[in-house]
Design brief:
The protein is an alpha+beta fold and about 140 residues long. The protein has one domain: Chemotaxis protein chec, CATH 3.40.1550.20. Helix content is about 30%, strand content about 25%. Strands 1-7-8-4-3-5 form a six-stranded antiparallel beta sheet. A two-stranded antiparallel ribbon has the order 2-6. The longest helix has 13 residues. The two termini are about 30 Å apart.
C-alpha cells in the first residue's frame, strides 16, 4: 500500500469525512491516537499489527520487559476500529472526545497519506510542522 498526498476535509455533523483511500482498505480502519505527534494514525488490520510490532526495535516484543509490555498495552488499548460506510466515509467522531480535543481535531481536518498508513491532523498544526525549511533539515545529515 502506498498512501500519498495531503488534503483538507470538513467533517459533517456526525463527524464523518470522505475517505479517498477506502478502496485500499477492507471494511474498516484501525486508528491509533499518537500524542507524541498530535495526530491520529490509521492502518489496515495487518498494517496496524506490523506498525505496533515495529515499535519494539530489532529485538522485537519481549513480554517480560515492563516498558515494552506497557507500550504494547497503550498502543493496542488506544486503537479504535472505524467502519468504512457504503459511501466511502469514515467517522472520526468515533475517536474518543479526549483525543480529538487533545489534538484539536474539530470540523476541519487534514488527511495525510504516509506510505503504509494515513494520518489525521488539525490543519493548522500540520501546516506549521511541514512548512518552512524543516524538510531540508530532515532529509540531509550535514
Amino acid at each position: 500500500m502506498d498512501l500519498i498526498g495531503a488534503k483538507r476535509y470538513t467533517l459533517d455533523a456526525k463527524g464523518r469525512m470522505s475517505f479517498p483511500y477506502a478502496k485500499q482498505f477492507d471494511e474498516r480502519v484501525y486508528v491509533i491516537p499518537i500524542p507524541e505527534m498530535g495526530a491520529l494514525f490509521g492502518f489496515t488490520a495487518e498494517g496496524r499489527e506490523e506498525w505496533v510490532n515495529s515499535q519494539f526495535g530489532p529485538e522485537g516484543y519481549e513480554p517480560r520487559n515492563r516498558n515494552k509490555e506497557m507500550l504494547k498495552r497503550r498502543l493496542n488499548g488506544r486503537t479504535v476500529v472505524i467502519d468504512i460506510d457504503n459511501s466511502g466515509r469514515i467517522c472520526v467522531g468515533k475517536v474518543p472526545e479526549r483525543w480529538r480535543e487533545m489534538f484539536n481535531i474539530e470540523r476541519e481536518v487534514m488527511l495525510v497519506g504516509n506510505g503504509e498508513h494515513f494520518e489525521i491532523w488539525n490543519p493548522d498544526r500540520y501546516e506549521m510542522i511541514v512548512d518552512g525549511d524543516l524538510t531540508a533539515d530532515l532529509m540531509f545529515d550535514d
